[in-house]
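Weekly structure sync, notes
Attendees: PL (lead), two postdocs, one rotation student
Agenda item 3: pending single-chain targets
PL asked that the sequence for the first pending target be pasted directly into the notes so everyone works from the same version. It is reproduced below exactly as submitted, 161 residues in total.
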Amino acid sequence: MLSHIISLLLFGVATSFSPGPNNIMTAYTMFNFGFKKTIPTILGVITGWTVLIIVLQFGSSAVFQKIDNLQNIIKIFGSFFLIYMAYKISFVKDKSEKANPKPITFVNTFFFQFINPKGIIIALVGISTFIDVQNNFLRDTIIFTIKFHGLYIEQNNTNDK
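Predicted structure, written out during the meeting:
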């Protein structure tokens, strides 16, 4: 159980602090509009991510119970996709564009979580890896949600400093 939680924590830290759209949106809003105007952006990311995790946990558990090998397939292909995204992000060219004069809102970041490919893949890989749909589903779901919710709050707090 302890090794399971340590693995989940390390997975969460690695995925929360890696570059992605949420980090970029939060940093953009903070640097251009200040902390007060960034609060809705942070709350939108945190709330949207938490709702996404809960929806995916309950939706995928029903599918995983019916198709046993699907969890392994998602683990493998999701991991390769995350490695591919990390590679693409690390070699992106700098493109200067005109800044949008309005801060990103709560509603924008909340609903963005449901189309954010990095967030969805991370959630599915995490769910398929750390949640046992046959045994202790509720316990694993609560631990997974709390751990990721806490990491996203911490990640957004460190972006603001």
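Discussion points:
- The chain has seven helices and no strands.
- The mean pLDDT is 80.
Action: rotation student to compare against the earlier draft before next sync.
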